[in-house]
Amino acid sequence: MNIYVLIKRTFDTEEKIVVSGGKIQEDGAEFIINPYDEYAIEEAIQVRDAHGGEVTVLTMGGEDAEKQLRTALAMGADKAVLINIEDDLDELDQFTAAQLLADYLKDKNPDLILAGNVAIDGGSGQVGPRVADLLEINYVTTITKLEINGSQVNIVRDVEGDSEMIETSLPLLVTAQQGLNEPRYPSLPGIMKAKKKPLEEVELDDLDIDEDDVVAKTETLEIYLPPKKEAGRVLQGDLSNQVQELVQLLRTEAKVI
Amino acid sequence: MTKKVIVLGEVREGALRNVSFEAIGAAKKISVGGEIVAVLLGESIQSLGAEMIHYGADRVVTVEHPHLKSYTSDGFSQAFMAVVESEKPDAVVFGHTALGKDLSPKVASKLKSGLVSDVTGIEGEGDGAVFIRPIFSGKAFEKVKVKDGIVFVTVRPNNIEPLAHDASRSGDVSSISVDITNLRTIIKEVVRKSSEGVDLSEAKVVIAGGRGVKSEEGFEPLKELAKVLNGAVGASRGACDADYCDYSLQIGQTGKVVTPDLYIAAGISGAIQHLAGMSNSKIIVAINKDPEANIFKVADYGIVGDLFEVIPMLTEEFKKLKAN
Prior knowledge:
Order of helices and strands of chain A: EEEEEHEHEHEHEEEEHEEEH
Number of helices of chain B: 8
Largest sheet of chain B: 7 strands, parallel
Structural class of chain B: alpha/beta
CATH topology of the largest domain in chain A: Rossmann fold
Largest sheet of chain A: 9 strands, mixed
Oligomer: heterodimer
Mean pLDDT of chain A: 95
CATH architecture of the largest domain in chain B: 3-Layer(aba) Sandwich
Shape of chain A: globular
Mean pLDDT of chain B: 95
Strand order of the largest sheet of chain B: 7-11-6-1-4-5-12
CATH superfamily of the largest domain in chain A: HUPs
Low-confidence stretches of chain A: none
Order of helices and strands of chain B: EEEHEHEHEHEEEEEEEEHEHEHEEH
Number of domains of chain A: 2
Number of strands of chain A: 15
Helix content of chain B: 25-40%
Low-confidence stretches of chain B: none
Distance between the termini of chain B: 51 Å
Number of domains of chain B: 2
Largest interface: A-B, 79 and 93 residues
Strand content of chain A: 25-35%
Strand order of the largest sheet of chain A: 11-10-9-12-8-1-6-7-13
CATH class of the largest domain in chain A: Alpha Beta
Radius of gyration of chain A: 22 Å
CATH superfamily of the largest domain in chain B: HUPs
Number of helices of chain A: 6
């Protein structure tokens, strides 16, 4: 089976966000594979181990993203591809990202593409379904279970807490929801092997796409931090009085009840 | 310049979701007096059209088809694109719900448009509209403008004011027929886990439990309180990882981001990854045994105490209030 995983390099969830000059400061920040993409990588490896084939991890960005690709290879992916746009594109939105990824994938005949259901930085959740639409293949988002029998696929999908049992077929793109699996940590032999696995770098010129086709449709004007929340009031006194006071405050001061 | 805006109304269990009315509120700002057309897709939904008009839509177009009884991206995108082709809108607004998140990227791809998703605020209007959306799950915000093509946004539930309900408003409710074919997804069954009460992302009140809840049974008092307040129960990653509850309840940078009017955090320490998912709630109440817990730093009101004492007392107190 020809399996692709779309991954994104993101800030570590424990990082505080620092903004200066309307932009996010990246200096000194820790970067990780977007946590939802880790589920996608893990699932891809399990599908390959059960059904044979090859797992290719694909990302887009600058050379820094090689680190996350190597981590995916160390987990057990077979090949990695970086679409390096560092020198070519200043502005990028989900439209652009999907155009580039789909263009790279269009002659690769993937049977299964996996991605995270959302990236924890931009949080748009658009790129997976957009890529599927451009490739004219079906997609199922926020999956928590995947079973493949031949070309038939059974999926459990999380829909706001409810579970949908879905039947569909390959080729297919799925996006991973928490609960799909437990992503493995790269093992030491895995890390050693990953160094020798192929990591291909592709530039915009290598793709069959005009720069006009990847001009972003949206533009971020400004990034800012929410007003810092002041620590409020810790109530005092007898516990039952505190509870009564709290209910009063919620009614009369906060007016939320 | 005025803009014609299409709003997708979302139907769940025979009723329109609140976020659909909020989407009309957003459409009003984008339209600058242009026409707002509500679209309803489903099996028998004609009768819900009037409600969209009462909340500010000028006109309603419905597509009814047996294949639209359950949501599928294939079925809904075919129906919606048929409406887009006949209406030729300048802008489109969906709710940022499970359905909206699944469908909007496919529609945006077909429209070759941008998509500003998960919008929590709008500044300006018409061509000058600037959309505010959280990034890093609310650790920061960005202001986004659409440079080219159709203005397509999804709005997060509970953030955009709906227009006032006006039962005297009237408008045309028409239907178009669409041939819906080639559904590649079959939904065999839906297992309802969240059938008790209110959806977490739309709830006005959220009662969330953390490690301090200690067990699956420990969530019972939280559920009781949620019932009295017509709210939803959520959880921290700690509680989910410890198997006290389902991952679908998780609030945080991984998990759901919620912005209710009232967020009650019980036995939650307040790790940065949890705060990202709830710190933009209007009012936060923290209940924790540890006075040093991080959660008190973002809480409007705090009670230092055992949640198993405090929560049942709160439930009783709210019951009394309701009885009066």
